[in-house]
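Hello support,

Our group uses your service weekly, and this is the first time we've seen a run hang past the timeout. The protein is Thymocyte nuclear protein 1. I'm not sure whether the cause is the sequence or the server load. Input pasted verbatim:
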Amino acid sequence: MPWPSRKRDKGAVADKKEPDAKIAKTEETPDKEEEEKSAKPPAGSSKSGWKNWKKTKESDSGGEESKITYCHWLLKSEPESRLEKGVDVKFSIDDLKAQPNQTTFWDGVRNYQARNFLRAMKLGQQAFFYHSNCKEPGIVAIVKIVKEAYPDHTQFDQKDPHYDSSSRKENPKWSMVDVQFVRMTKRFIPLSEIKAHHLAHKADGGPLKNMMLFTRQRLSIQPLTQEEFDFVLSLEEEKPH
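Update from on-call engineer: The timeout came from a worker crash unrelated to the input. Re-ran successfully.
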């Protein structure tokens, strides 16, 4: 029996709890604008962190700037129970780890931009698994794409909360990918901490200055540049503020 669709993305009002993600991999209601949770970034923010990271990256790459291409992803999923048309759309990282071969399909996306991002995903690319619409949103793990986009079967299932009567099997509107658990991050990286770096980078040109988590926060599937991915990943080595 397939998991309830878990992705989401539709759009929502800012600063509202956005149901989003493996609606929890889903998308009809915007990701809870989880930004609300990070109203005040922790004191101490991040310029020094960015400068130290930049130094390391420059020594590794000869000072060359990364080309702006999206090659990693951030996938939002709801770890807490929430009913969508009578179906609990909860899907946490523990739920993924409990799947056969720690693999599942990322279904239920009903936002066109998020769907297009799904269709752009390539085999083997890595993504952050992000707990959304919960007490403390943030990154908990890394997953990888193990099957590229194919039709999302939930769009044709009348019992599924994400059934779409306007979609036709000969020309499906909605797609999904398969993802597999890679590892937990060394520590939980909260939205509030990422936001502190984003605000500092907006001022000094750091890698998170245009991070979609803050410019298109309602999307449950978001692309990341190599620099964004590397910088966020480097935070797991730091002590939380």
